[in-house]
Amino acid sequence: MADILHVLTQTAWKAIGGSDTAINAVKFVGSGSLPSAYRVTDVASAAIAVAGMSIAELLARRNGDAPSVTVDRRLSSFWFRTSIRPIGWSLPALWDPIAGDYQTNDGWIRLHTNAPHHRAAAEHVLGSGSDKVGVARAVALWKKTELEAAIVESGGCAAEMRSTAEWAQHPQGMAVAGEPLVHVVTTDPVARPDWPVPIPRPLTGLRVLDLTRVLAGPVAARLLAVLGAQVLRIDPPGWDEPAVVPEVTLGKRCARLDLRQAEDRSTFEALLSKADVLLHGYRPGALDRLGFDPAVRRTLSPGLVDVCLCAYGWSGPWASRRGFDSLVQMSSGIADTGMAWRKAARPLPLPVQALDHATGYLMAATAMRGVTRRLTLGGGTEGRLSLARTARLLVDAGLDDSQPPLAPETTEDLDGVIEATDWGNARRLVAPISIPGVALHGARPARRLGSDQPQWQ
Fold this sequence. Notes:
Number of strands: 16
Oligomer: single chain
Shape: globular
Structural class: alpha/beta
Helix content: 25-40%
Distance between the termini: 45 Å
């Protein structure tokens, strides 16, 4: 276990430009693993450790020696599922009623229909189906590759189940294999800021503009928020993701803008001009088409730490394809491997949305290393990640070595703070990262999207 964790952590840390010796300050505690064919708990712990190492590095550059970082494997596993525990209320259902895995006449396909326009695209191809039985009947008439292509062409989201070997030979799988885990470049130096980097809240004074949605990007922005950054999340009018908003808006303010409207574009430009960090999850080229390509972003905010992610990678024929964690698991062979491992009759995904969460923590780590670079050298950072490349990290780690199951959650795993969310009171799990003197907590409770004005405080 320790060797695998060390290798995974070092691989991810070096991918964002970290030094070889930083891992010496990391300690892993806890035993057990999530049930999976893959080393999900190890990847979770490594990704969270890299985020912790980036915090420690920032504190060291500003205050002296790097503090130690302790990562709890068990809590890391729990946080990869959900951190919030409602008191007297329940989270909405995670999936739309017709989302899921279906048998075609030559294999399996997954439909992702959580967004209304994605469901409409699937129904356009398959015919309106009010329930899974009707959808299953329609799907069974198709070949999986043809149905995947038809739904994607209609603006929807679907993925046929492939094996890891098939994905390795697929043009997109080969493209992803040639990409780095994290692509990082530095931009021209500008004046160095005077951020205070206080030990309890290291990101105090930073402004983070969050243009991300389900789920990796919001996880990244949440970590920056609980470290003291002022995080302003921007969503388009009408967008919602009710099952995960209480989970990921901890510590943030949430506003709406329509970047196709002149007045809202002007507001966005003003916000970006004062932002220190930009996180975005638009598909490759989407922000460019709205008039905000990297050069424009750097002009508006010289020295910007600009970190983005996509689903299927930044090169290859699927670079602009819509995608989500569950779809990438189907495409890349993860669900097929799980099915064989469990000897199941249908695709078996990971027990948690590990690609989303791991990519989110790596995204946050990339942003924090960018903050450190800005403080010390004055230069900005551009970083790129993808769910598909994180999937390769998981697959390359090999199959799980059958660690015992995790000990069940107890009340001792919850922190002592009552969070007055917009849905009711809740508690959070204790943070999986422990750094002496650092307090990871949200200054604001989770809130509904669109609750705030699009302005910095």
